[in-house]
Fold this protein.
Amino acid sequence: MEMDEAPFPGDVAALGVGRMAVVDIGSNSVRLVVYEGPARTPFPVFNEKATCGLAIGLAVSGRLNPEGVELALKTMTRFAKLAEVMGARRVDLLATAAVREAVDGAVFVEEVSRRFGRPVTVLSGDEEARLAGLGVISGRPDADGVMGDLGGGSLDLLMLENGAFGKTASLPLGALRLADMSGGDRGKARDLVDKAFEGVPWLKEGRKRDLYPIGGAWRALAHIAINQTGYPLHVLEGFVLPRAGAFDLAHFIKGLSRKSLDSVPWVSPRRAQTLPLAALVLERLLLLVQPRNVVFSVYGMREGRYFQSLPAEVREADPLVSACEALGRMRPRFPIRGEELWRWMQPLFPDETAPVARLRLAACLLGDLAWMEHPDHRPESAFRRVLRSPFTGVTHRERVALAYALCCRYGGDASLAAVRACDSLLDKEGAQWALAVGRALRLAFSLSGGVPALLHQTRLEMDSKRLVLATSDEDSIFLGEAVDRRLKALGKALDREPILARRGGSASL
């Protein structure tokens, strides 16, 4: 994966141990996020924003909104104290388009620096786009297509080439600025957007690839789509709309009145002010780029800054596997490792592709995720926890299959109401795979009690008709009603006759 090691001056290559805080001084809002690090997946332990509207009126006056400045300074005084008491060993203050372009931006930066006791990095449009791009590829290392980060002051664009950076552009099309420039006239706003896009001819290179929209306003559009269509998975990361569906959504929202948007329960009053213009920008971008799909992400510039600060060996790790390793290490019940479980059951999946093997490893790393729950609730708890966990590098269909595998590991099946609710994202092949993985995990923990040395004394073999569990000796530790029952359940999941072979009997097929 290619990336600039220093998208802006003053970069520190390694995060080290401890918490990191990022203060994003945006054109519309100011946000503090504190991350627990160093970990491949940015797990936020604190996240708070204040909608300050620094860019309101900027297009006309050239200055920051005075009321917004007052609120931002008050907010950042609180953020400075919070970051300190929360033990953040590093605090990065990043300012974007409004501060960058306002004639009084330097005065504002000086006051923020005084209150925090540390410098503020004012990002250029190119730097802003690249950090947002890092955020996208931190979750999708092979991202390919056009990324657009829509803020209050600017739209920052970046071409992603299978995880590498291509061309960039920063356009004055942020929702607050567009509202000022157009005077609320949506026809004029459309003309301004189209004229700005004329200066970015490389956008057409994104055709038949993906479009990655970043920013709160565009995430709000995705939330509307999820809620209004009854989509079964309320997870924004990895939510995909085909181009036609995204265009219809944007076209519909851009025509709504403020009164209509106020009645939508998933849209805040402040967001309703600018959402039609954000939808208009997306509609015009879709018409120009004509992507294959629109892929939404919760990651952006802040996560890109966190990702950039990680040591190189951490950045190169698989995002899904790393997240599952981290979750699996939280309050483990047994010493057995996910990699050992993965290798033990490998004979059951002789023809699996690399992506499927990776998903199976994720399931093994989470093999005892719900052990602290009451046994009656473990299947549903495991299913829901996987659905809602902050994974990246996984599609929604893969997420549901992974969740179902953990449900089956605790004895659950497709009759569970939570599973039935997601059946549109779980095809027959995925369900069969998840059942086999889950039943194999269930057998492994019964055989070994989570002790690696015991599992290593057994092996699985399979042909077109039989499933054999071979043991190295006649030790009664491998004999029992629970083992028999779970071997039979695995055989049924694989449509094979289950056979327990001890020393002195047939141990091979």
Remarks:
- The two ends are 44 Å apart (CA to CA).
- The chain has 22 helices and 14 strands.
